[in-house]
Amino acid sequence: MKLKRILALIIIVAAVLLVRASIIRIGPDEIGVRTINFGSGHGIVQEDYGPGYHRNVWLLDTWNRYPSSVQRLRFSKDALGSLARPVGELQLTSADGDRVSMTAEAVYRISDGAGHFVLQDSGAGKRYEDVVRNLAQDAARVLFGRLRTEAFYNEANRESARQEAAALLRERLKHRGIDLVDLLVETIEFDPNYENLIKQKKIADQQVELQKAKARAAAETGKVNTIKAETTVKVQKVEKETEAKVTQLRTETDLQVAALINEANKYATQRGADGTLYDNQKKAEGQRLVKFAQAEGTQRLNAAMIGEGGRNLVALEAAKALNLADVTFPSYGYDWFNPYQMALRLGGGEAPPAPAPDVHPPVAPGERLGAAHSNHDDAATLAQDGTNH
What is the mean pLDDT of residues 114-119? Predict the structure, then answer.
């Protein structure tokens, strides 16, 4: 009975061991690749196995595991981090023959569904890393080898070469079942002696650039001073032209004002002369009319003195000369107190009969003036005759 139990236990253990030996577990960050060792379908199975449990018959199946996560291959002297595997610096030769050491890092991963192809192309284990290293060195040597040593110090040139090298490496790894994420360049080192020469040359170049910058600054300062001087001259010229223009306009305005004043004075003088002439004409005309009236009065006086009027005037003057206080009148009669009789006694003549009224038809003002002038001429002639008599 005891022997049976031991035998059953051995069988169970053997069964468990057999089952465990017939199953393999692929982790969540792994890619499984199965190889059939013999039989009709022997060889690498053309598919990848994901995480989980898969058949693994002893002596019949062989399994290889590859990482499905992103991998880093560092080209440097020392490792940096647990995920980076140092494989030595990239040794390059510049276009002008100088040796350059480059610290870089290739970031990559096995392409989806290409694990079996990597096993078939690169082999089992970590041999795919050797593929990445060799292809990265070749791409870096080709692209960075085109640069001259001084160009390595130029960031733009260095970045352009890095991008071209990454593109070339990506294309080559794609055909090997590997995807390149990026090719990163960290540092570049030269031979110490050459680095000193480069630094001295850079310092000299910077000094040259500094002198050029100072020269440009001086030239710009000269240009600014020239512009200031030209601007000052232009401003002074404009001010002088403006002043001359103002003076010219002021002179022209004064001349125009003087001309207007002269014209006004001339017009006033002319108008004054016309007024004086008109006044003199009116005065002469008045004097002529006065003389005409005087001549007409003298003519009428002379005419009156010829007849009874003259005797009456003499009698009147005689009456004025009488001193009534010395005259003795007779007590009889009253004819001495009759003015008419008195005038007759003093030599006055008979009173002439009253003349008939002289009625003339109305005449125009011009005809009346002509008649007045005619009468004035006649009166003047009579007055001249009377004076002569």
Answer: 92
